[in-house]
Design goal:
With 223 residues, the protein is of the alpha/beta class. It starts with 5 loop residues before the first strand and ends with a strand. The protein is globular and about 55 Å long. It folds into 2 domains: 152 residues, Carbamoyl-phosphate synthase small subunit, N-terminal domain (Glucose Oxidase, domain 1, 3-Layer(bba) Sandwich); 56 residues, no CATH class. The strands form 5 sheets. Strands 1-2-10-7-4-3-11 form a 7-stranded mixed β-barrel. The mean pLDDT is 93.
Length: 223
Amino acid sequence: MSEPKKIKLVLKDGSEYEGKSFGYETSISGEVVFNTAMTGYPESLTDASYKGQILVTTYPLMGNYGVPNDDKDEYGINKHFESEKVQVSAFIVSDYSFEYNHWNASKSLSQWLIENKVPGIYGIDTRALTKKLRESGTMLGKIVFDGKDVDYFDPGIENVVDMVSVKQPITYGNGKRKIVLVDCGVKNNIIRCFLKRDTTVIRVPWDFDFNTIDYDGLFISNG
């Protein structure tokens, strides 16, 4: 394995944190936030609520159980992820495990990030970084690779909901209870939980025209 390349995080207040790259090698910017979960990084990274954000994990070790396959269930929903792709702009960890082992792993976390063109940094003191974010609140930041600087980008100025919402209605299941779910970045597990309760879930875009619904049967027409 070749020596990992240097990469750094630069916060809007001028703070710099240098680490090493284990993901896609590019410069990118976004809003820096942290997550305190001890496990579940495949779910967190595909959570649409993190769209446009640079995610920092407080738990030190990441990557040790790899990434599961992208199998779908009987409803066409991904079994292991909260959406169909990695949603974060970048991933920052303290210690990255290049060796992984799990019965359901199909690839390494590094491979997955590279496939999704998402930078990853390890070797940063994420405790100090998290403390700064806790005291100051979320902050804009940028990942700088190979000296290629980028401007700070605030995802709050864009319609992020439109980016993560479905574009056309999708129906799941055939239960006796019918639910219209307005997709503003819904997690797959919310849909799974509804389907376990004998429901039909009709997932619609965030800007859906509800005049096209027949409320007697919750049938979505083409008109």
